[in-house]
């Protein structure tokens, strides 16, 4: 057996440094100091009699020997991870922590959660609200439900990022307000609600797409941080907001709200499930994912 195998921690640290091309990022992942990573890499290179990294700017690039070792450690760690996941796999029953936006949690998920509990009383759901891209491991999150066009780009490679459809955004108002809106020119004279300060579903892009010149860079808006706040404003005032269909459909079906104009925003709201594919709660995660997909498809009449 090669003497380097007497200290597997050196190989684990090497794999992290090679993966990130950075000693500092490897240190952050392994919860040790950058100096410790540097020391371990010097020790490993001394044991092997090979240079494994070369520095280029702020990056640590692999040498040819480093590339060979990185491939080997990747394969070995994957085999170990799969084996450990198999022997530590949790049963279906137990807790499952879900993270999603405040709006989706409050408007869509929580009102329907009793339906899931009837089907799977053995699974206890815990919900955390967050609009950010949380570190699932650090925050002890089993499954995140995320939205937008940049979810894949912001999801670490070690996580599964599963697309499960999209939603259409329309201008939504109260039924009484609809009587006052003869055409799109009338929208600019009403209080407009924007969700978020840099949302890809804003009024300006909607107006440009549909040629509504009365809405421009000088138009004033009321900005709120989430869709549930926008819905509250629309329900209780003469405001108009751009809201995705699955978060306002119940209010439309009840006759409280309506689509002001059948002119959708050019950007759809993409939906994704994000989770650690190595999670021992994989069976639990899969059951919940399939329930959400089925529930949304049924409500959409698919």
Please write out the topology:
Blueprint: H1 8-20, H2 23-30, H3 34-48, E1 53-56, E2 59-62, H4 64-88, E3 94-100, H5 102-119, E4 123-129, E5 143-147, H6 151-154, E6 159-167, E7 169-174, H7 175-178, E8 192-195, H8 203-210, E9 222-224, H9 227-236, E10 240-244, H10 245-253, E11 257-259, E12 269-276, H11 282-299
Parallel strand pairs: 3-4, 3-5, 8-9, 8-10
Antiparallel strand pairs: 1-2, 5-12, 6-12, 7-10, 7-11
Helix pairs in contact: 1-2, 1-3, 1-4, 2-3
InterPro entries: LysR-type_TF_proteobact-type, LysR_HTH_N, LysR_subst-bd, WH-like_DNA-bd_sf, WH_DNA-bd_sf
Protein name: HTH lysR-type domain-containing protein
Family: Belongs to the LysR transcriptional regulatory family.
Q: What does this entry look like structurally?
A:
The protein is an alpha/beta fold and 302 residues long. The protein folds into three domains: 3-88, Orthogonal Bundle (Arc Repressor Mutant, subunit A), CATH 1.10.10; 94-166 and 269-299, 3-Layer(aba) Sandwich (D-Maltodextrin-Binding Protein, domain 2); 169-259, Periplasmic binding protein-like II (D-Maltodextrin-Binding Protein, domain 2). It is built from eleven helices and twelve strands. The strands form three sheets. A five-stranded mixed sheet has the order 4-3-5-12-6, covered by helices on one side. Strands 9-8-10-7-11 form a five-stranded mixed sheet. The chain has a two-stranded antiparallel ribbon with strand order 1-2. Helix 1 packs across helix 3 (34-48). The protein is elongated.
């Amino acid at each position: 057996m090669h003497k380097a195998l007497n200290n597997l921690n050196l190989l684990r640290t090497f794999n992290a440094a090679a993966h990130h091309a950075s000693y500092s990022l490897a240190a952050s992942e392994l919860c040790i100091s950058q100096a410790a990573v540097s020391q371990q890499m010097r020790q490993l290179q001394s044991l092997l009699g090979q240079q494994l990294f070369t520095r280029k700017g702020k990056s640590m690039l692999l040498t040819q020997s480093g590339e060979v070792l990185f491939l080997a450690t990747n394969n070995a760690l994957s085999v170990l991870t799969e084996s450990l996941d198999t022997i530590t796999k949790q049963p279906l029953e137990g807790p499952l922590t879900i993270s999603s936006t405040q709006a989706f949690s409050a408007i869509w998920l929580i009102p329907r959660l009793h339906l899931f509990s009837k089907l799977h009383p053995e699974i206890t759901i815990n919900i955390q609200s967050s609009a950010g891209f949380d570190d699932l491991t650090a925050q002890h999150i089993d499954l995140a439900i995320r939205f937008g066009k940049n979810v894949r780009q912001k999801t670490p490679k070690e996580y599964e990022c599963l697309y499960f459809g999209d939603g259409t955004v329309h201008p939504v108002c109260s039924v009484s307000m609809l009587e006052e809106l003869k055409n799109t020119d009338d929208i600019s004279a009403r209080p407009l609600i924007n969700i978020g300060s840099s949302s890809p579903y804003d009024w300006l892009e909607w107006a440009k797409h549909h040629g509504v010149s009365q809405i421009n860079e000088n138009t004033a808006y009321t900005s709120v941080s989430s869709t549930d706040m926008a819905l509250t404003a629309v329900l209780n005032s003469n405001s108009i907001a751009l809201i995705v269909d699955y978060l306002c459909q119940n209010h439309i079906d009840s006759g409280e709200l309506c689509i002001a104009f059948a002119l959708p925003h050019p950007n759809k709201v993409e939906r994704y499930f994000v989770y650690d594919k190595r999670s021992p709660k994989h069976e639990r995660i899969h059951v919940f994912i399939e329930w959400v997909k089925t529930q949304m498809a049924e409500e959409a009449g698919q």
